[in-house]
Amino acid sequence: MSGKGAGLLQSVERAMRVLDHIAASPGPVPARDVATSLGLTLPTTYHLLTTLVTGGYLVHLSEEKAYALGHRVDDLARGLHRQIAIPPSVQRVAEVVHQQAQAAAYYAALRDAEMIVAHVAECPQHPRIRPLDVGFHQAPHATAFGKLMLATLAPDARESVLDHTGTPAVTRSTVTSRAQLTRQLDQVQGTGLAVEVDEFQSGLSCMAAPVTDAAGRFVAAVAISMPTSRLRADRWTAERAVRLGAVRATRAVALSTAVRSGRLT
Question: For residues 89 and 112, what is the distance between their CA atoms, to the nearest angstrom?
Fold first, then answer.
Protein backbone atom coordinates (compact mmCIF):
# COMPACT_ATOMS: atom_id res chain seq x y z
CA MET A 1 0.00 0.00 0.00
CA SER A 2 1.32 3.46 -0.84
CA GLY A 3 0.33 7.11 -1.02
CA LYS A 4 -2.28 8.77 1.15
CA GLY A 5 -3.64 5.44 2.41
CA ALA A 6 -0.26 4.01 3.40
CA GLY A 7 -0.36 2.31 6.78
CA LEU A 8 -4.18 2.05 6.91
CA LEU A 9 -5.83 -1.28 7.62
CA GLN A 10 -8.66 -1.24 5.10
CA SER A 11 -11.22 -3.12 7.20
CA VAL A 12 -10.65 -0.79 10.17
CA GLU A 13 -10.80 2.29 7.96
CA ARG A 14 -14.10 1.09 6.48
CA ALA A 15 -15.54 0.35 9.92
CA MET A 16 -14.64 3.88 11.05
CA ARG A 17 -16.33 5.31 7.96
CA VAL A 18 -19.48 3.33 8.78
CA LEU A 19 -19.42 4.56 12.37
CA ASP A 20 -18.87 8.17 11.27
CA HIS A 21 -21.70 7.92 8.74
CA ILE A 22 -24.20 6.63 11.29
CA ALA A 23 -23.05 9.17 13.88
CA ALA A 24 -23.68 11.99 11.40
CA SER A 25 -27.17 10.75 10.51
CA PRO A 26 -30.26 12.26 12.20
CA GLY A 27 -31.60 8.81 13.09
CA PRO A 28 -31.13 5.04 12.61
CA VAL A 29 -29.76 4.03 9.21
CA PRO A 30 -30.66 0.87 7.21
CA ALA A 31 -27.75 -1.27 6.04
CA ARG A 32 -28.59 -0.70 2.40
CA ASP A 33 -28.39 3.07 2.87
CA VAL A 34 -24.98 2.72 4.54
CA ALA A 35 -23.72 0.61 1.64
CA THR A 36 -25.02 3.03 -0.99
CA SER A 37 -23.69 6.14 0.75
CA LEU A 38 -20.21 4.70 1.31
CA GLY A 39 -19.87 2.80 -1.94
CA LEU A 40 -19.60 -0.60 -0.24
CA THR A 41 -21.10 -3.93 -1.21
CA LEU A 42 -24.00 -5.09 0.94
CA PRO A 43 -22.19 -8.23 2.25
CA THR A 44 -19.19 -6.09 3.29
CA THR A 45 -21.49 -3.59 4.94
CA TYR A 46 -23.29 -6.28 6.95
CA HIS A 47 -19.92 -7.69 8.06
CA LEU A 48 -18.78 -4.27 9.26
CA LEU A 49 -22.10 -3.52 10.95
CA THR A 50 -22.09 -6.87 12.76
CA THR A 51 -18.53 -6.25 13.98
CA LEU A 52 -19.48 -2.83 15.33
CA VAL A 53 -22.63 -4.19 16.99
CA THR A 54 -20.61 -6.95 18.67
CA GLY A 55 -18.21 -4.34 20.03
CA GLY A 56 -21.07 -2.21 21.39
CA TYR A 57 -20.36 0.72 19.06
CA LEU A 58 -23.65 0.21 17.21
CA VAL A 59 -27.00 -1.35 18.02
CA HIS A 60 -29.28 -3.14 15.58
CA LEU A 61 -32.87 -1.94 15.87
CA SER A 62 -34.67 -5.00 14.53
CA GLU A 63 -38.14 -3.42 14.36
CA GLU A 64 -36.79 -0.53 12.28
CA LYS A 65 -34.34 -2.75 10.38
CA ALA A 66 -31.71 -0.10 10.95
CA TYR A 67 -28.57 0.69 12.95
CA ALA A 68 -27.85 3.37 15.53
CA LEU A 69 -25.01 4.33 17.88
CA GLY A 70 -24.29 2.04 20.83
CA HIS A 71 -23.24 2.61 24.43
CA ARG A 72 -19.52 2.28 23.71
CA VAL A 73 -19.60 5.56 21.78
CA ASP A 74 -20.72 7.31 24.96
CA ASP A 75 -17.88 5.61 26.85
CA LEU A 76 -15.44 6.97 24.28
CA ALA A 77 -16.89 10.46 24.62
CA ARG A 78 -16.49 10.37 28.41
CA GLY A 79 -12.93 9.12 27.99
CA LEU A 80 -12.15 11.99 25.64
CA HIS A 81 -13.53 14.51 28.13
CA ARG A 82 -11.33 13.04 30.86
CA GLN A 83 -8.24 13.17 28.69
CA ILE A 84 -8.70 16.77 27.56
CA ALA A 85 -9.79 18.06 30.98
CA ILE A 86 -7.87 21.17 31.96
CA PRO A 87 -6.59 22.16 35.44
CA PRO A 88 -8.95 24.13 37.69
CA SER A 89 -6.58 27.11 37.49
CA VAL A 90 -7.05 27.26 33.71
CA GLN A 91 -10.81 26.89 34.10
CA ARG A 92 -10.74 29.89 36.43
CA VAL A 93 -8.90 31.90 33.78
CA ALA A 94 -11.66 31.11 31.28
CA GLU A 95 -14.29 32.23 33.79
CA VAL A 96 -12.48 35.55 34.31
CA VAL A 97 -12.29 36.11 30.54
CA HIS A 98 -16.00 35.31 30.29
CA GLN A 99 -16.80 37.92 32.92
CA GLN A 100 -14.43 40.62 31.68
CA ALA A 101 -15.39 40.31 28.03
CA GLN A 102 -19.06 39.63 28.78
CA ALA A 103 -18.88 36.89 26.19
CA ALA A 104 -18.71 33.12 26.01
CA ALA A 105 -15.09 32.05 26.62
CA TYR A 106 -13.34 28.95 25.36
CA TYR A 107 -10.12 27.09 26.07
CA ALA A 108 -9.06 25.05 23.05
CA ALA A 109 -6.10 22.68 23.29
CA LEU A 110 -3.73 21.60 20.52
CA ARG A 111 -3.80 17.86 19.86
CA ASP A 112 -1.91 16.49 16.87
CA ALA A 113 -2.64 19.40 14.50
CA GLU A 114 -6.21 19.75 15.79
CA MET A 115 -7.65 22.39 18.06
CA ILE A 116 -10.18 20.76 20.36
CA VAL A 117 -12.45 22.69 22.71
CA ALA A 118 -11.57 21.57 26.24
CA HIS A 119 -13.59 24.03 28.33
CA VAL A 120 -16.39 26.55 27.85
CA ALA A 121 -17.40 29.36 30.21
CA GLU A 122 -20.86 30.71 29.40
CA CYS A 123 -24.10 31.99 30.91
CA PRO A 124 -27.66 32.55 29.68
CA GLN A 125 -26.83 36.16 28.79
CA HIS A 126 -23.66 35.21 26.92
CA PRO A 127 -24.06 31.66 25.59
CA ARG A 128 -21.54 29.74 23.53
CA ILE A 129 -21.94 29.23 19.80
CA ARG A 130 -24.05 26.06 19.75
CA PRO A 131 -21.64 23.69 17.98
CA LEU A 132 -18.66 24.86 20.06
CA ASP A 133 -19.03 22.42 22.93
CA VAL A 134 -16.29 20.40 24.63
CA GLY A 135 -14.82 18.05 22.04
CA PHE A 136 -15.47 20.27 19.02
CA HIS A 137 -12.54 20.27 16.56
CA GLN A 138 -13.89 20.91 13.06
CA ALA A 139 -13.45 23.72 10.53
CA PRO A 140 -10.09 25.17 11.62
CA HIS A 141 -10.16 27.59 8.67
CA ALA A 142 -13.37 29.17 9.98
CA THR A 143 -12.73 29.45 13.74
CA ALA A 144 -10.46 31.90 15.52
CA PHE A 145 -8.62 29.24 17.51
CA GLY A 146 -8.32 27.11 14.38
CA LYS A 147 -6.77 29.99 12.45
CA LEU A 148 -4.38 30.52 15.36
CA MET A 149 -3.18 26.92 15.04
CA LEU A 150 -2.90 27.10 11.26
CA ALA A 151 -0.79 30.25 11.58
CA THR A 152 1.76 28.40 13.75
CA LEU A 153 2.23 25.52 11.31
CA ALA A 154 4.94 25.27 8.69
CA PRO A 155 3.52 25.72 5.15
CA ASP A 156 3.74 22.00 4.30
CA ALA A 157 2.09 20.97 7.56
CA ARG A 158 -0.62 23.59 7.08
CA GLU A 159 -1.38 22.39 3.57
CA SER A 160 -1.57 18.81 4.84
CA VAL A 161 -4.14 19.81 7.47
CA LEU A 162 -6.20 21.79 4.97
CA ASP A 163 -6.05 18.95 2.44
CA HIS A 164 -7.62 16.76 5.12
CA THR A 165 -10.22 19.21 6.47
CA GLY A 166 -10.92 21.19 3.33
CA THR A 167 -12.03 24.82 3.41
CA PRO A 168 -15.80 24.58 2.89
CA ALA A 169 -18.07 27.60 3.17
CA VAL A 170 -19.58 27.32 6.64
CA THR A 171 -21.30 30.67 6.10
CA ARG A 172 -21.40 33.14 3.23
CA SER A 173 -18.48 34.99 4.86
CA THR A 174 -16.15 32.00 5.35
CA VAL A 175 -12.73 32.42 3.78
CA THR A 176 -12.47 29.44 1.42
CA SER A 177 -9.61 30.56 -0.84
CA ARG A 178 -6.25 29.12 0.24
CA ALA A 179 -4.48 32.26 -0.96
CA GLN A 180 -6.81 34.57 0.99
CA LEU A 181 -6.55 32.32 4.04
CA THR A 182 -2.74 32.45 3.84
CA ARG A 183 -2.85 36.25 3.86
CA GLN A 184 -5.16 36.13 6.86
CA LEU A 185 -2.82 33.75 8.69
CA ASP A 186 0.18 35.98 7.94
CA GLN A 187 -1.70 38.76 9.73
CA VAL A 188 -2.39 36.42 12.67
CA GLN A 189 1.33 35.68 12.91
CA GLY A 190 2.11 39.38 12.95
CA THR A 191 -0.46 40.40 15.58
CA GLY A 192 -0.54 37.30 17.76
CA LEU A 193 -4.32 37.42 17.60
CA ALA A 194 -6.84 35.60 15.42
CA VAL A 195 -10.24 37.07 14.59
CA GLU A 196 -13.05 35.66 12.49
CA VAL A 197 -16.07 37.75 11.58
CA ASP A 198 -19.25 35.88 10.62
CA GLU A 199 -17.14 33.02 9.20
CA PHE A 200 -18.39 30.24 11.44
CA GLN A 201 -21.87 31.52 12.23
CA SER A 202 -23.56 34.54 10.70
CA GLY A 203 -23.92 37.43 13.12
CA LEU A 204 -21.32 36.05 15.52
CA SER A 205 -17.58 36.61 15.67
CA CYS A 206 -14.67 35.06 17.57
CA MET A 207 -11.27 36.17 18.78
CA ALA A 208 -8.40 34.00 20.07
CA ALA A 209 -4.93 34.48 21.56
CA PRO A 210 -2.21 31.85 21.99
CA VAL A 211 -1.25 29.92 25.10
CA THR A 212 2.32 28.60 25.17
CA ASP A 213 4.28 26.12 27.27
CA ALA A 214 7.49 26.79 29.20
CA ALA A 215 9.50 26.40 25.98
CA GLY A 216 7.36 28.95 24.17
CA ARG A 217 5.57 26.39 22.01
CA PHE A 218 1.94 26.95 21.04
CA VAL A 219 -0.23 24.50 23.02
CA ALA A 220 -3.68 26.07 23.32
CA ALA A 221 -5.81 29.15 22.83
CA VAL A 222 -8.08 31.36 24.88
CA ALA A 223 -11.01 32.55 22.78
CA ILE A 224 -14.31 34.38 23.02
CA SER A 225 -17.42 34.62 20.86
CA MET A 226 -19.94 37.43 20.76
CA PRO A 227 -22.36 39.12 18.38
CA THR A 228 -20.47 40.79 15.55
CA SER A 229 -22.10 44.13 16.35
CA ARG A 230 -20.73 43.99 19.91
CA LEU A 231 -17.25 43.02 18.74
CA ARG A 232 -17.15 46.02 16.43
CA ALA A 233 -18.42 48.37 19.11
CA ASP A 234 -16.24 47.05 21.95
CA ARG A 235 -13.26 45.55 20.12
CA TRP A 236 -10.51 46.78 22.42
CA THR A 237 -12.15 45.69 25.67
CA ALA A 238 -12.68 42.24 24.18
CA GLU A 239 -9.14 42.04 22.83
CA ARG A 240 -7.65 43.09 26.16
CA ALA A 241 -9.63 40.38 27.98
CA VAL A 242 -8.53 37.71 25.50
CA ARG A 243 -4.85 38.70 25.47
CA LEU A 244 -4.66 38.94 29.27
CA GLY A 245 -6.50 35.64 29.55
CA ALA A 246 -3.96 33.96 27.29
CA VAL A 247 -1.09 35.31 29.39
CA ARG A 248 -2.74 34.07 32.60
CA ALA A 249 -3.51 30.69 31.03
CA THR A 250 0.13 30.37 29.92
CA ARG A 251 1.24 30.93 33.52
CA ALA A 252 -1.37 28.50 34.86
CA VAL A 253 -0.33 25.79 32.37
CA ALA A 254 3.34 26.23 33.29
CA LEU A 255 2.55 25.99 36.99
CA SER A 256 0.36 22.93 36.53
CA THR A 257 3.05 21.22 34.43
CA ALA A 258 5.67 21.95 37.07
CA VAL A 259 3.47 20.48 39.81
CA ARG A 260 2.76 17.32 37.79
CA SER A 261 6.42 16.79 36.99
CA GLY A 262 7.43 17.19 40.62
CA ARG A 263 9.47 20.34 40.04
CA LEU A 264 7.11 22.23 42.30
CA THR A 265 5.32 20.84 45.35
Answer: 24
Q: What number of other Cβ atoms are within 10 A of residue 89's Cβ? A: 15
pLDDT digits (tens, 9 = 90+) for 41-72: 999 999 999 999 999 999 999 989 999 999 88
d(C-alpha 35, C-alpha 190), whole Å: 48
- Asked whether 181 and 161 are in contact (CB, 8 A), the reply is no
Measured in Å, how far apart are the chain's first and last C-alpha atoms? 50
Pick the closest to residue 212 from 241, 189, 185, 246 (CA basis): 246
- Buried b vs exposed e over 186-206: b needs ≥16 C-beta within 10 Å? eebeeeebbbbebbbbeebbb
Query: What distance in Å separates the CA atoms of residue 265 and residue 263, rounded to the nearest whole number?
Result: 7
Distance between CA 180 and CA 246 in Å, rounded?
A: 26
Helix (H, G, I), strand (E, B) or coil at 192: coil
Q: What's the rounded Cα separation, in Å, for the pair 239 and 208? A: 9
